[in-house]
Amino acid sequence: xxxxxxxxxxxxxxxxxxxxxxxxxxxxxxxxxxxxxxxxxxxxxxxxxxxxxxxxxxxxxxxxxxxxxxxxxxxxxxxxxxxxxxxxxxxxxxxxxxxxxxxxxxxxxxxxxxxxxxxxxxxxxxxxxxxxxxxxxxxxxxxxxxxxxxxxxxxxxxxxx
Amino acid sequence: xxxxxxxxxxxxxxxxxxxxxxxxxxxxxxxxxxxxxxxxxxxxxxxxxxxxxxxxxxxxxxxxxxxxxxxxxxxxxxxxxxxxxxxxxxxxxxxxxxxxxxxxxxxxxxxxxxxxxxxxxxxxxxxxxxxxxxxxxxxxxxxxxxxxxxxxxxxxxxxxxxxxxxxxxxxxxxxxxxxxxxxxxxxxxxxxxxxxxxxxxxxxxxxxxxxxxxxxxxxxxxxxxxxxxxxxxxxxxxxxxxxxxxxxxxxxxxxxxxxxxxxxxxxxxxxxxxxxxxxxxxxxxxxxxxxxxxxxxxxxxxxxxxxxxxxxxxxxxxxxxxxxxxxxxxxxxxxxxxxxxxxxxxxxxxxxxxxxxxxxxxxxxxxxxxxxxxxxxxxxxxxx
Lengths: 161, 384
Known about the structure:
The complex is a heterodimer.
Chain A: H1 2-16, E1 25-29, E2 35-37, H2 39-42, E3 47-53, E4 59-66, H3 67-73, E5 89-95, E6 100-104, E7 117-123, E8 126-127, E9 136-139, E10 152-159
Parallel strand pairs in A: 1-10
Antiparallel strand pairs in A: 1-2, 3-4, 4-7, 5-6, 5-10, 7-8, 7-9
Chain B: H1 6-13, H2 15-42, H3 73-83, H4 96-99, E1 136-137, E2 143-144, H5 146-155, H6 164-172, H7 175-185, H8 192-204, H9 212-217, H10 225-235, H11 250-253, E3 263-264, H12 278-281, E4 290-291, H13 313-323, H14 350-361, H15 366-370, H16 377-383
Antiparallel strand pairs in B: 1-2, 3-4
Helix pairs in contact in B: 3-7, 3-8, 5-8, 10-14, 13-14
């Protein structure tokens, strides 16, 4: 049933977009395998929910993939490998409107923090609104929503120089 | 030098001859002086070496210069010559400077510029200001880097309308260009790629950082109360519950540069005639989405928007205050932002609009639009 709803929401999103072309998220830079993830691809990963306030001041439940899981899949130095010079790595997240924010890799890693940062595609059980989706970063407990970047198109892993 | 002046010996030996031809010597010397001064003027040595960009520290150093095109003084000069070179157009009448005029902050005052075939361009000519910080060019951001950008209007049949190979041929006979290309690139081969690179170098130097707003940020200008309120309204978002007015312009036009390289649908139409970035990506979320342009010298760059639909700043501010049109791809920044509780649009008062325009006028930089380093070098030679 859950899978069916997910499938239904994907179809709804495709129809609402008017074109059968959808935004994907590219994971590039200091990776072993670059990824180009469409909505259906991200559904293959374990889904996690985070509740946080948006600009409207209300709590919302966002559902998506823990960013660290996607990075691990791309072969980014997480977990045991996140030490030494790898601690100078950060991710630059880009949106389709040109907006960019960064996170240090250590901010995303479970061995450093329990705070969840997810690549969400669902808000309150529905696909993200058109202006926010299909993908939005949701940072648990962060006071300002400024790094909850909407319409994510790319994640690039880089060394600080 | 004076004691061994060659003329002394010459005079004593050929006294009689000299007396006869004294007039000729004076005349010859006169001619030599004229020729020498003329030569000194025309060959006014082009400065060489690394070009030092000067800008306030609050502009930040997130600048964009490709590794294969470092900025040099000689490259900037060559770029300036080419920027104003009409031989780069099919009818020898247009240069980059035709649609990008310095006194209008490098715009031309028209909704759509006309190219060599008199066909109007599909979009409004953009101001060339502080491009050193820009990464993506054109209203739809389709060119990555100034070098790639420069080639497009030169070769577009409705703009300058000439293949680069023809441009190369046309200026190949010009000795001065050969000297300059050698100075810039080490040898005097003229190529399309080198033309574009030099123009990009010149364009990177078009920095506007001496407006009243810059002077205010540097603590050298005290704005009027109207200007100060304009700054507050421009930079801040509305919070009607707390009685704080705001226009939220700074959300996309903020920071000391008033430029952030963003792309938005700003609610001009429900069904846009020009699909904007959607044309490139095929994504519905990019429908009617265009570059958020710099507001530097905005009082000089009318008409406004990608299609030049607004003639005045008053019309622009009215749009954002009262006429933003909802659509699926309208950027979220325009949704639900209002100075009235539950309001659909910003709803600024008449005075607030005037205050914002007072701030926009602070962005005019007279130094920039009169800087002789940015002027047409060909005209300077003709004038003298």
